[in-house]
Write a structure and sequence with these properties.
- The complex is a heterodimer of chains A (89) and B (224).
- By secondary structure, chain A is mostly helical.
- Helix content of chain A is 25%, strand content 6%.
- The longest helix of chain A has 7 residues.
- Chain B is of the alpha+beta class and 224 residues long.
- Chain B has two domains: 90 residues, Orthogonal Bundle (Cyclin A, domain 1); 98 residues, SH3 type barrels (Roll), CATH 2.30.30.50.
- Classes of the chains: A mainly alpha (89), B alpha+beta (224).
- At the A-B interface, helix 1, helix 2 and strand 1 of A face strand 4 and strand 5 of B.
Chain lengths: 89, 224
């Protein structure tokens, strides 16, 4: 688990102000987009499947995997846009 | 217990400082602080819930001013003494002064196999689940002095059962050597305003995993 998510600034505010915590990670969540927080209070573990970026139709598995970051897998970031990795859609 | 590990909703810690990918430890000793916390499970004198309780039992002033791995080290020291594996004087001296308690030991060559096997907390159900997906439930307003994983912000709150996970080890008992006492485990989702009031983000919902004995159905609610 990355360091930022173990510390009090994250753990205290992720439940009350997740929009603000995501802003700390450089992620802007549009008004009206639902924010679902899951406080992991058991031994059940979860994986976040990142939202598919626009313009990725037709990309193969390897090309899609290149868009996935650590933060996208833990819910503190989005998969990077195709343009950011120089891919073509 | 209402300890300093239960931070949800607390304010004043400042912004999150994201770290680059690939940074796992900030010093070599942090790597070594993690391993004995895993190894103590093999001795059967400790378990994950006892470790959590040891860490949440640190004095709030110490807990809140310590970084992550010092908390793990201090929690482990407490657990080693409480479980009788290490004497308090031995801990201070930094070496053993008694022969030691014979316990199963995790050998280096078995580490990966043990970690890969995991330690599932699911158990066989002996009674049907009291609640189903979609049920409206309320968490109990408990304040136990012992371990619980029901966070303070989610006590006495109304939510909806989102998932039924089966029967799992009950941390409130397991942390205190009272056996596993397995309980039905549910994911319960709450509206942001139910937890945080009218000023909360309208787009927010929060879910916790909660044990059956911490939940009551609407028909069980009363004002007495």
């Amino acid at each position: 688990m990355p360091g930022a998510s173990r510390v009090p600034p994250y753990r205290s505010r992720a439940l009350l102000d997740p929009r603000g915590v995501l802003a700390d990670f450089g992620v802007t969540v549009a008004e009206g987009m639902r924010i679902s927080v899951h406080d992991s209070t058991s031994e059940v573990r979860y994986l976040v499947v990142p939202m598919r970026p626009a313009g990725t139709e037709g990309l193969d598995e390897a090309a899609l995997a290149a868009l996935v970051t650590r933060d996208a897998m833990i819910g503190t970031g989005l998969a990077v846009a195709v343009a950011e990795v120089g891919g073509t859609a | 217990m209402n300890g300093a590990a239960d931070l949800g909703g607390m304010m004043g810690f400042g912004p999150v400082q994201p770290e680059p990918e690939g940074v796992h430890f900030h010093a070599e000793w942090e790597r070594r602080a993690l391993t004995p916390n895993l190894a103590i499970g093999a001795t059967r004198r400790g378990n994950i819930d006892m470790s959590r309780h040891a860490r949440e039992s640190l004095h709030p002033a110490d807990r809140l001013t310590s970084s992550y791995y010092p908390i793990w080290v201090e929690g482990l020291e407490r657990l080693l003494v409480d479980s009788g594996l290490v004497g308090a004087a031995e801990l201070v001296a930094g070496r053993a002064s008694t022969p030691g308690v014979p316990v199963p030991v995790l050998s280096a060559e078995r580490v990966w196999a043990v970690l890969a096997a995991g330690s599932p907390h699911a158990r066989r159900a002996k009674a049907p689940a009291q609640f189903a997906v979609g049920d409206h439930v309320r968490t109990r307003a408990i304040n136990p002095t012992g371990h619980t994983r029901l966070p303070r912000y989610a006590r006495g709150r109304s939510g909806v059962v989102e998932r039924v996970h089966g029967v799992h080890v009950f941390p409130d008992a397991h942390a205190h050597g009272a056996g596993e006492q397995p309980q039905w485990l549910y994911t319960v989702r709450f509206g942001g305003r139910e937890l945080w009031g009218d000023g909360a983000d309208a787009d927010l919902t929060v879910a916790v995993d909660a044990r059956e004995c911490h939940l009551e159905g609407p028909q069980q609610l009363s004002l007495t």
